[in-house]
Amino acid sequence: MPVGTLRWWRHRKVGPRSFKLGRSVRYKKTDVDAWLRDQYEAEGASA
Questions:
Q1: Could you give the CA distance from residue 15 to residue 24 in angstroms, rounded to a whole number?
Q2: Does residue 43 surpass a pLDDT of 90?
Q3: Are 4 and 12 in contact (CB under 8 A)?
Q4: Which of 12, 24, 31, 37 would be a feasible disulfide site paired with 17, CB 3.0-4.6 Å?
């Protein structure tokens, strides 16, 4: 995933939950997995 895409998603509040650790943005694996699962289920509901 391009860094710019993640930055844009954070700005729009549409991507996985993130947090800052110092000057770095981090993602917990459980939050990313949950976000991916939600995206997959939403895609299945629309198909």
A1: 16
A2: no
A3: no
A4: 31
Tell me if residue 16 falls in helix, strand or coil. Answer: coil
Tokens of residue 22, six digits: 């110092």
Residue 38, CB-side half-sphere exposure with 13 Å CA sphere = 10
Chain-centroid distance of CA 16 in Å reads 2
Alpha-helical (H) ranges within the chain are 3-12, 29-46
How far, in Å, CA of 47 to CA of 30, rounded?
Answer: 26
Return d(Cα 29, Cα 9) in angstroms, integer: 17
| Domain ranges, ordered by start, for the chain | 3-12+21-45
